[in-house]
Amino acid sequence: MTRTRKTICTLMCLAFFAVLAVMPGSFILQKNVYRQLPLFRFLERKAARDFQRKDPDTYAKIVENHTESLGAMVEKENEEVRDEQEKAVAENSVGQAEDVERKTEDVEPTETTEGVKKTESTVTAEAEPGQAQTEIKTKEEDKQQQKEPSEDENIKQTEKDSEKETDKSQQDKPATVIPEVTQTILASNSIQPAPRIDLSPQTLADYDYLMNQFFIVDSQTTTNADQLNAAELLGEDLTIQKDAAKPQILLYHTHSQEAFVDSKEGEVEDTIIGVGNYLTELLTKNYGYQVIHVTEAFDMESGELDRSAAYDYAGTYLETILEENPSIEVVIDLHRDGVPENRHLVTEINGKSTAQIMFYNGLSYTIARGSLDYLPNPYIQDNLAFSFQMEYQAAQYYPDFYRGIYLAGYRYNLHLRPRSVLVEAGAQTNTVQEVKNAMEPFADILNRVLQD
């Protein structure tokens, strides 16, 4: 061996022992030794930068506000905000009461009785806004007996509509109805993200995790990781520009006769159409959208319930409306689900008993027949993105509200627009009020997707 080679070997040995001296733990314990090498670190950082560079908006959108510890932190912040609001309301009430007392003392003796009466009226109307809001909510809840969702073909059987009485005070709308509806959006705006599952991009990139947390696949169809790519679904821009002069949302009910456990027979407001009426009110008054609410009975034939061709009838009818109103960008088919009688799909949101919802997507593909060319839908991926983005918002703000996205083999008229969705709100075992309450968080997550 030449002198030069000996020198090189000596230098390499010294370099090796120098590295070993600096990082002995990794080498001795054999814990990812390669991660200590400069070349690996360089490539690892470069790969992370490339991922963000390819789709920085989606990456930032997913990462924002989502870590394992975020839920606890946000819950604590929500409690602090609620405490501050309650304190402010209490102080305001006390201040107004003191003002009333001072005004009463200034009244002349001959006018004392009349002044006190006026003061009492003022206190009742103004002193306690929190109490007034509570009364408004109570009136609105009494009014929410109008909803009925429906089942989907191929996975649900025709159910017997229950006939039980429900308390209902829905005659003349009081002047407080509008502030009451406005109160709903104020409550939605105060909600902060509090996810209970990991929504990080790395975790959502795991196909098995995504399926377990968000999707339910019907036995007659199938899907794959290419079709359900979380980054791509969340990255699609589904926002729209509000235009108060033109209709932008079309709401209808393929199964218009679906009712609830306490629905009164023959009372339209106790069916899914009544639920749609309330959703229309929320979207119009709270969020500024123009909504066309179709209340046609597509599932009635000669006065009898017949759902065998309801989707065909609905599709033909809706195509005419969409041709006449090209400004419509969102199409919602509002149903209720059919479940075993001992199952109750309910949670609590903003202090209200609220029916849970499920999104329903058609893939125009069955295992037995493959692609269903006679039911073409160029918007399958758009439909999936629309459902998934709403489910993603629900996972952040209303973790107990959503049941999943059901993937079925047929089309269900979701080909009418890219932003088409079929929603199952509650089931036949829910009350009218529970399903109507569900429209408040649903309107919120819908608006977040359309305006985010």
From TrEMBL:
<feature type="compositionally biased region" description="Basic and acidic residues">
    <location>
        <begin position="136"/>
        <end position="171"/>
    </location>
</feature>
<dbReference type="InterPro" id="IPR010897">
    <property type="entry name" value="Spore_II_P"/>
</dbReference>
<feature type="region of interest" description="Disordered">
    <location>
        <begin position="78"/>
        <end position="178"/>
    </location>
</feature>
<dbReference type="Pfam" id="PF07454">
    <property type="entry name" value="SpoIIP"/>
</dbReference>
<protein>
    <submittedName>
        <fullName>Stage II sporulation protein P</fullName>
    </submittedName>
</protein>
